[in-house]
Write a structure and sequence with these properties.
- By secondary structure, this protein is α/β, with parallel strands linked by helices.
- Helices cover 42% and strands 24% of the residues.
- The chain has two domains: 252 residues, Alpha-Beta Barrel (TIM Barrel), CATH 3.20.20.70; 74 residues, Arc Repressor Mutant, subunit A (Orthogonal Bundle).
- Bound molecules: iron/sulfur cluster.
- Iron/sulfur cluster binds next to loops.
Length: 370
């Protein structure tokens, strides 16, 4: 039987750079889109020589919805010609409200995409403007309506917490407006201030003030409580889904399953090798090779814990044994004594998982394991 793996495709184009963004994305490079799709398809052909089936596809960015429908069609058709997809493969595409056209959504649907993720972020105009987002909340609502019209049922909304000037009542209002759109999935991410971004400069200069730690924790708790009340199950630190709608692609990454990455800056993980394609668009277009890193067995075991503990179900000891040939306790038993004693991690039905208290201090638990 063929093994099942994931496939990630990076589309690095954006209308303009958001204030907080340090992703490998570029504004004003639309003239490179056609050459880029050709380069991704060349890479797909190169990486397709393996005995595997694609269980999940994730097209991320950047702003994949900026690609003209004809180019997206070429990309999806080409990829399907290179790889063998499972008939029930989960195929997701990120879209940015304000760039979504009905023809684009129809193209995705026609070519097997069955899940959409919209970067909606916040319902308040002043917050969207501070983030440098190109869209309004109303455009996010309109995008969801168009997606439903195109036949999409599985829809995620990304929301952001801990923004400068954001209040608890802003988060409450955003949640209510998001819930009114009845998404199957919500991702609620805390802002990370990345070096080199406008956000970092504004915060460091004192021009923008972040909410204090307590307020940020209250925002997160409000998300957890509100979404639980509305039937969304938290399955990862930042991710909530209706039953049966957890993102399989992300869950597989956290379970350390193998995946191929295509496109500039894309990462892949096959066997004991992780690779990253050149983050610079021009380097990728001129064929600069990926950088490869061999993961030692010890690093692989730590990766399983670092990734798996993000999920509320935790790390399966049976899966750990299958992947590493040894049990969690054989490797980490000694280091786990203290976090277990402090009530930060616990065993439940063969899974080691963070407790509610442990989720708040996930990093310190991982330091213990190191
Ligand atoms: S749309 Fe996304 S990838 Fe593009 S600049 Fe904004 S945050 Fe970055």
């Amino acid at each position: 039987m063929k093994k099942e793996i994931g496939l990630y495709v990076h589309i690095p184009f954006c209308v303009r750079k958001c204030a907080y963004c340090d992703f490998a994305s570029f504004a004003g490079r639309e003239q490179d889109e056609a050459a880029y799709v050709d380069a991704v398809l060349r890479e797909a052909e190169k990486r397709s020589q393996m005995d595997a089936s694609i269980a999940t596809l994730y097209i991320g960015g950047g702003t994949p919805s900026l690609l003209p429908p004809a180019l997206m069609e070429k990309l999806l058709t080409g990829i399907r010609n290179c790889f063998d997809f499972l008939s029930d493969a989960e195929c997701s595409c990120e879209c940015n409200p304000g760039t979504v056209a009905q023809a684009f959504l129809d193209t995705l649907r026609r070519n097997g995409v069955n899940r959409l993720s919209f970067g909606a972020q916040a319902a308040q105009p002043h917050l969207l403007s501070l983030l440098g987002r190109i869209h309004t909340w109303e455009q996010a609502e309109e995008s969801v309506r168009m997606a439903r019209q195109a036949g999409f049922e599985n829809i995620n909304l990304d929301l952001m917490l801990g923004l400068p000037t954001q209040t608890l009542s802003d988060v409450g209002e955003t949640l209510q407006k998001a819930l009114a759109l009845e998404p199957t999935h919500l991702s609620c991410y805390g802002l990370i201030v990345e070096e080199g971004t406008k956000m970092c400069r504004m915060v460091e200069s004192g021009a923008w003030t972040l909410p204090d730690e307590d307020t940020e924790r209250d925002m997160y708790e409000l998300c957890r409580e509100t979404l639980a009340q509305h039937g969304y199950k938290q399955y990862e630190i930042s991710n909530f889904a209706r039953p049966g709608f957890a993102c399989r692609h992300n869950a597989d990454c956290w379970k350390r399953k193998e995946y191929i990455g295509l496109g500039s800056a894309a990462c892949g993980f096959l066997g004991s090798v992780r690779y990253q394609n050149p983050p610079d668009l021009s380097d990728y277009l001129t064929g600069k090779p990926a950088e490869e890193t061999v993961i030692s067995p010890e690093e692989a075991r730590f990766e399983s814990m670092m990734l798996g503990l993000r999920m509320t179900e935790g790390v399966s000891d049976a899966a750990f044994r299958k992947m590493h040939g040894t049990s969690i306790n054989d490797v980490f038993g000694k280091q786990l004594e203290k976090p277990i004693r402090l009530g930060l991690v616990e065993w439940q039905n063969g899974f080691l998982r963070l407790t509610r208290k442990g989720m708040d201090v996930q990093n310190s638990v991982l330091v213990e394991l190191l």
